[in-house]
Amino acid sequence: MGQVTVAIADPGDPFAGTALSRLGHELRGPLAGIIGLTKIMGRKLADGATDAAQQARQLDMINNSAAELLATVERIVTLARTADAGRRLEPVDCRAVCEQAVTATAAAADQHHRGVRLQLPPSPVSGLANHDDLCDAVTELLDNAIKYADGPSVRLTVHADGPAIEISDDGPGLAGDERERVFLPFERGRAAREGDVAGTGLGLPLAVRHARRCGAGLAVRTGSAGTTCTLTLAPLVTGHGRET
User: Fold this and answer.
1) What is the pTM of this model?
2) DSSP readout, the chain?
3) 58, 117, 127, 144: which could join 163 in a potential S-S bond, CB 3.0 to 4.6 Å?
4) DSSP 38-104
């Protein structure tokens, strides 16, 4: 089956429609875990049946649930905050952005035993963007590829023509109805839902928001296997015309 390219639009209000019910679902799980464990510990303390090792394990589970909840809330706040207008654009070196994204996702790559093949041209490739937003967009897309790729590595490539940054994986790809839906808040693809990789469905919407804020276009090419996300930046323009 051939691949299809889709231009990705803004994910919209994270608190509208079905997104609000999905938000409740994402928050309910960690909160229920925290409440349940504290009730168990409270009953055992009241009965005088205390086991230090068991309490330590339960406290660790509470801490993990609280950390998961906090991370979700922080990403929701970021998604809401990035709905505002874009920031001032300036020349940004795409190579430096990609190197920073690789560093930011190193822990995830180690956890999933997956390498990142960084393919950079020998000379700097610059475009108009906001450095922080572009780096966040690349990091979110790269993190998503690392989590769901099937092969031993994912590819992060800088193209002087565009200029553009490309993130490619050999994962399961996206079916027709998923190609745009997974970029909506709290939505996850079938492979993500059926797999054992934790996620909230906020990484890709955040990538779209950060891309929009720095003036970059985002397109996704996918099919029955493999997905490629391409961020295209506005080229630098000098007094002599276009320059990349």
Assistant:
1) 0.69
2) ---EEEE------TTSTHHHHHHHHHHHHHHHHHHHHHHHHHHHHHHT---HHHHHHHHHHHHHHHHHHHHHHHHHHHHHHTTSPPPPPEEEEHHHHHHHHHHHTHHHHHHTT-EEEEE--SS--EEEE-HHHHHHHHHHHHHHHHHH-SSSEEEEEEETTTTEEEEEE-S----GGGTTGGGSTT---HHHHHSS----S-HHHHHHHHHHHTT-EEEEEE-SS-EEEEEEPEEEEETTEEE-
3) 127
4) HHHHHHHHHHT---HHHHHHHHHHHHHHHHHHHHHHHHHHHHHHTTSPPPPPEEEEHHHHHHHHHHH
| Domain boundaries, given as residue ranges, for the chain | 18-81, 90-243
Amino acid at 73: V
Please state, in angstroms and rounded to a whole number, the distance separating the CA atoms of residues 92 and 52.
Answer: 54
Compute the half-sphere exposure of residue 185: CA atoms within 13 Å on the CB side of its CA.
Answer: 28
Give the whole-angstrom CA distance, residue 156 versus residue 163: 14
CA distance 177 to 175: 6
- Tell me the pairing of strands 115-119 and 153-159: parallel
Q: What are the pLDDT digits (tens) for 35-90? A: 777 777 777 766 776 677 777 777 777 777 777 777 777 777 776 666 655 568 89
